Amino acid sequence: MLSIKDLHKTYPGGVYALRGVTLDIKKGAFFVIIGLSGSGKSTLLRCINRIHEPSSGQILYNGTDITHLQGKAIRQVRSRMGMIFQHFNLVPRRSVMTNVLTGALARTGTIRSLSGQFSSEDRDKAMENIRIMGLDGKESHRIEQLSGGQKQRVAIARALMQDPELLLADEPVASLDPATSTSVMTYLEKVNKELGVTVLCNLHFLSLVRQFGTEVMALKDGHDVFHGLPDEIDEAWFKKIYGDDAVEVTIK
Amino acid sequence: MEKTLMKQTKALLTDLFLGCYTVFIAKKVVFDLMLRGERHLNYELTESLWILASGALLGVLLFALNATSPGRAIQGIRKPMVKSRAKSPLTWVIVTMLTLTFVAGLRISQVSMQEFLSQKGFQGVMRIFNQMLHPNFGILEMTMQAALETIFMALMATLFAIPFAFVLSFFSARNLMIQHRVLRIVYYASRFVLNMTRSIEPLIWAIVFSVWVGIGPFAGMLALMLHSIASLAKLYSEQIENIDDGPMEAMVATGASPVQVVWFGVVPQITLPFLSFTIYRWDINVRMATVIGLVGGGGLGTLLMQYQGLAKWSEVGLIVIVIAIIVWVMDYASAKIREAIK
Does this complex have an ipTM over 0.85? Predict the structure, then answer.
């Protein structure tokens, strides 16, 4: 459903983030990208929904070239791609409900959304997504009252409002403790398996990769150095991806 | 290479300026006015040229000797001293210049201990203070009327300024405007207008508006409003520049339109700081409204000006007391409110 061909990204100022990445993601996959910090994982995800502009290469989404779409056209594509972030990126000082509803902004008129008039279908759907994420009864809580894991689940509920075919998850558990990490990953798995959303996820912990991933790709200095199954990453590959001094840390 | 040349040029220009300045101060102020006791600075063409020439020579000398060049020091291209024990010659150059400036400053601002400590002057002050400490409560009603004008003038100026400042602040926020070429032009234009407006004191605006709409609170309000727009827009836009980009990024990722991105990604992060700045601005405006009254902006200031002109110090005393109370209450209340909404 998503294929990327020879994608390059150079930031203004000459920093190379991506130097020719090619990948193919099938519908329903839980596709994991691993690699050191600064290897280009986040940039790759942001190039897919074009928050960052790729310098060259091609992005095909359901067979359509979306590499150069502008304005309304790219917003249309974004509206069907959910995204969650390491730091949750929720709207501060607003309720869980409002935050989840922002996932429906693209299909709500500007004037209506500014005055908070979301359609009743969207409100029902928001309640449903809050329930799916196990946050019943927290609709009117402010974001500041939630724990880190709960915040990330609000972010997933927001992404679900977009009826996403693809969910981009940029290090979704990197700022959470181990127990919460597994819990959030389980919710992501639920989204993937039960709701049929294809997930593209950046991760740091190999144990999580093995537990949840169906396919894995490794980035190093902007190059894709490994494509395969999670189990195929052995000691040798590990050293190659993370450097000779690296030692694997497990998370249970 | 080009950069060093640029720095060298800047350093040389700085040295030339400082050289001319030093010679001018030394010759015209310290020598002529203070040592020879002349009453005024007299300018003659030949002498001016001499000062310029010798100042330029001094500047070039400072620059050429390297270790003595303030210009090079500012640009960071002065060669380090090898002998570190001795006081750097630059220190002597700077000390000399500062001393000359201080001495000349005493003469130019006509600092005089004799007049400060004179018996007659002291008695005069005591007489005024004495009357001011016996305020005339007969004009209390009129003063309260004027106080009301001042406070509401400040309030209306603040309220009218909010919508303008709010909109302008988004146009003057670097992080929102810098990406697109058209927006960047709007950004620079808006920054320029705000800076110009802010750099003109409300006192001047009050004079302009009292000619425009006539002397009174309305003129004062307009002056305060204009200055408030410029100041608030600056404060607001700095707040926008300091927000967390995360929520904005998330809103972009949902496919939201640019207006929606700003409304949901930016506005929730800035409402409280904006409110806090606005209350503080009202507090400042009340204080400024008094000053603006002096040039015809109405309210307490105008009243104060009238009685001061008539040398009615008991009345002035009452007005001063009322001003002090209002300023103190506003200061206290605005601090408390700002603390509460943090």
Answer: yes
